Amino acid sequence: AGVLMSWATVSAAIASRLSTLPDVGRVHIGDRHLRDEARVRDLMASPVDGERDRFRGWRIARVSAEEEWLTTLHALARERYVLRGLQGLTDRSGSERSFQELIDAVLEQFRPLAQAALGGALIVSAGRTGEIGYTSFGDFGCHGVEITLEVEELLTVTTPSFGAPPHRSSAATARDSYGDVAAQLAYYLSGVADSGQVHEERPWARTEAELVALFTVPADSGPDGRQTMRAWRVYRSGDEEERGLGNRIEAGARWKLNCQWSWVDALDSYSAFQDHIDAARIVFRGLMNLGNADNPTLAESSPLQVREFGARDVGGVLCHFADCEIAVEEVCHAV
After folding, report:
1. Which of 37, 48, 166, 249 is buried most deeply by CB count within 10 Å?
2. Hey, is 248 helix, strand or coil?
3. What is the full per-residue pLDDT of the chain (335 aa) written as tens digits?
4. CA 160 to chain centre
5. DSSP-H helix ranges across the chain
6. 65: left (phi > 0), else alpha (psi -120 to 50), else beta?
7. What phi and psi values does residue 52 have, to the nearest 5 degrees?
8. 298: number of CA atoms within 13 Å, CB side?
9. Are strands 317-333 and 305-314 parallel, antiparallel or unpaired?
10. Residue 208 to residues 53, 136, 224, 313: CA-CA distances in angstroms?
């Protein structure tokens, strides 16, 4: 057991094995969003079957990251990585057949790694494909496929260094209010470097000016002159209660912690965003108890789960997006 391997280390190990295949094309770590045709061709251009006017390539992306505690000292992390393969569509040269054969070669390449080590992590399933079909990349028509690998890793739990969290406003035997729990979660998120603006609710912006005020960080402007968007939104998405012994009530709630950052390929924002989410995971993995002297029963019932890594359009700004979730439990008393 040890510290979580960085997503980049796992991705690099996958890329290294993928790159050993002949004619596999260009292999990139992280997703890209390009609109310029010349940059698209530069990213994926690779001679395939002797033709230089076609392209073939792969992008390796982490799409989810979940955890569970095994003991107070150890946790098990499960992450899904997707290999997104593309090849230029050219009927005259039988590109469908060559792409299908390439998929078979990739699946064979990772099949021996089921239940085998990949650096410090473990691939626990051989590759699984989604739909093999047609897509586009920039203005290019392509064959496309997504191959999913599941990776597990045993981690050591470390307690983060924080000061005392905010005190609650509720009565001693009552359940914490929405605002109390939101403030606790936001407090710990705010201690993660580059967290940007942390909102204890789901604010909605109707104008660009409102969007800038809610989600951007004025001190960190992007290369195009626009302010960089960095923000978290903390809100409760579900709740249930169960009566225990006597007048005890066992309450459980699901909380969403959604993060979004401006997507700037030129600054490799993909890597920075992935690292930021991992830093937040480390904090909540080590907390366990969210309470304080006012309410010692408030606790996490699971570490931070990243249900999805993706992209969102926020007011015309393309952003990285992480849909994170945490379960919070509490014991209170019926009146």
Report:
1. 48
2. strand
3. 555 677 888 898 899 989 999 889 889 998 877 555 566 666 666 655 555 446 788 999 999 999 999 988 889 999 999 999 988 887 777 888 989 999 999 998 888 766 666 666 677 777 788 889 988 776 778 899 999 998 888 888 888 776 666 655 555 556 677 888 888 899 999 989 889 889 998 877 777 677 767 777 754 544 444 557 889 999 999 988 787 777 777 888 899 999 999 888 767 888 889 999 999 999 999 887 776 666 667 778 889 999 999 998 877 788 899 999 999 888 776 66
4. 21
5. 7-19, 37-44, 95-110, 178-190, 208-215, 269-287
6. beta
7. -95, 0
8. 25
9. antiparallel
10. 41, 30, 16, 13
- Identify the helix (H) or strand (E) that includes residue 322: strand 317-333
| Closest listed residue to residue 274, CA positions, set 287, 257, 261, 256 | 261
Distance CA 233, CA 260 (A): 9
Cα distances (Å, whole numbers) of residue 323 to 256, 276, 320: 7, 13, 10
E strands, 138-247, are 140-156, 197-199, 216-221, 227-243
Range 29-50 burial, b when 16+ CB lie within 10 A, else e: bbbbeeeeeeebbebbbbebee
Residue 263's H or E segment, with its range, is none
* CB of 110 closer than 8 Å to CB of 58: no
Tokens of 69: 């505690």
Three-state secondary-structure class, residue 195: coil
* 8 Å CB contact between 25 and 46: yes
> The pTM is what?
0.84
Q: Which residue has the tokens 């698209």?
A: 40
Q: Which amino acid, one-letter code, is at 113?
A: L
Q: Amino acid identity, residue 108?
A: E
Q: Which pair of tokens denotes residue 287?
A: 């907390």
The DSSP annotation for 4-60 comes to: PPPHHHHHHHHHHHHHTSTT--EEEES------HHHHHHHHB--BTTBTT-BEEEEE
